[in-house]
Write a structure and sequence with these properties.
297 residues; 2 domains
């Protein structure tokens, strides 16, 4: 048997199981993610994130959702991964360049007395072209009428390294839906034919132009307490539709994120996300010898 050490971490309640995979790694990380993410029979989490070697950055973030599907990018996850790398002494560098399936991301840690308090992530430029998001339409998808479950919803679509569908609401009804009803609605969006690679869906109530309240359904994970890329998509959608300023607080069920999309005068600029990165606990599990394999760099 082989012992595998892990760390449970969370950012605004968006919790993942973290594994250092610099020398050895799970042979089937997708299956391991399904097993460990189970909140009744496993460790419990929104998925599995591995700290892996990179040829282009300081490290690579390899991410799997709770259902075992591969994740391109997670804003809350990358902040926690940077904290793990820094505090474990793998890299005492600030900022860090972390490779993801959505490209290289710069993470600037907020450190006080050797302890990471939070981080700001350069999330890159938002992708607004429909075919690149991707959705089944050309051009920008802004306040676009989409029929979902027999109703016409007005949606704005953005990619922050992964596809997002933002739905603005006028009241707090969506926040009062029970989990069953919200899951039913979330799945209808996630698996809609308009989204060829499925989609993350954010329901946004603008409290003011500098404050957005959000409830999110993530593809592959279901409802989560927070979604960093989703918060970024919400702000971008708010700016594009005239509902928000370029800097705002996004309120999630698990906490707040500060999101900024500066106007550099050129029409293109990255989105910046600032939030916490919290270690919950460390642990270890027993795996069969064949379930771990050496890392080949």
């Amino acid at each position: 048997m082989a012992s595998l050490e892990f760390t449970k971490m969370q950012g605004c309640g968006n919790d993942y199981i973290y594994i250092v995979a610099l020398r050895a790694r799970p042979a089937d990380p997708a299956a391991l993610s399904r097993r460990l993410s189970d909140r009744h029979l496993g460790v419990g989490g929104d998925g599995l994130i591995m700290l892996a070697p990179s040829q282009v950055g300081d490290f690579r973030m390899e991410m799997y959702n709770a259902d075992g599907s591969r994740g391109d990018m997670c804003g809350n996850g990358i902040r926690c991964l940077a904290r793990l790398a820094y505090e474990r002494g793998f890299l005492r560098k600030n900022p860090m360049a972390i490779e993801t399936d959505a490209g290289l991301k710069s993470v600037h840690l907020q450190v006080a007395k050797g302890e990471v308090q939070g981080a700001t992530v350069d999330m890159g430029e938002p992708i607004l072209d429909g075919r690149q998001i991707p959705v089944a339409a050309d051009g920008r998808i802004i306040d676009y009428p989409l029929e979902v479950d027999g109703r016409t919803e007005t949606v704005t679509c953005v990619s922050i390294g992964n596809p997002h569908c933002v739905v603005f609401v006028n009241d707090d009804l969506i926040f009062r839906l029970d989990g069953f009803e919200f899951a039913r609605l979330g799945r209808r969006f996630e698996n809609h034919a308009f989204f060829p690679k499925r989609v993350n869906t954010e329901f946004i109530l603008p409290v003011s132009r500098n404050q957005l309240k959000m409830r999110v359904w993530e593809r592959g994970s279901g409802e989560t307490l927070a979604c960093g890329t989703g918060a970024c998509a919400a702000l971008v959608a708010g700016v594009l539709t005239g509902r928000a300023e370029r800097k705002a607080t996004v309120e999630l069920r698990g906490g707040n994120l500060e999101i900024e999309w500066p106007d550099n005068g050129e029409g293109k600029s990255p989105v910046y996300m600032t939030g916490e990165a919290v270690t919950v606990f460390d642990g270890q599990i027993e795996l069969g010898d064949a379930e771990m394999v050496p890392v080949r760099v």
